[in-house]
Amino acid sequence: MIRLVRAHAGDAPALTAVSARAFDNDVNYGAQGPSGPPGYDSVEWQRRTIASSEYYCVMEDGRLIGGVIIAGGPAEQHELWRLFLEPERQNQGVGGQVLELVWALYPMVTRWRLDTPNWNDRTRRFYANHGFVEVATTHDGGVIFERQTPPPRPVL
Q: At the N or C end, where does the chain have fewer CB atoms within 10 A?
């Protein structure tokens, strides 16, 4: 069973290790070499991000298998900064389960944004398959996605 558990500073080393394996694995999907977004392999960056954002450990049967980082904004708009999974748990539907858990945690958010590298067709397809639409490009060649949903109905 997949669960999201709020990350704490003590989780930073384990999250860093999973993040490094996950992003370095992108070499199998078109990356020029092992690399990732800023701080992906830095324990200190993970600690700072845990303290300043909504960071969740992705847990499966009590084992850390990934992370998801959310940046808050106005109540109805948030940004999905990162979603990463252990390489052996990728391409198995786990990422979609994580997104469903995120949507359930943030029912009032009607607009989600994220960016991803243009070269990563796998990631672009993943987000498109989960309701995101490409809306722009970044100055460095990334792709910006948005997902909009209707607001929840009030309970009468």
A: C
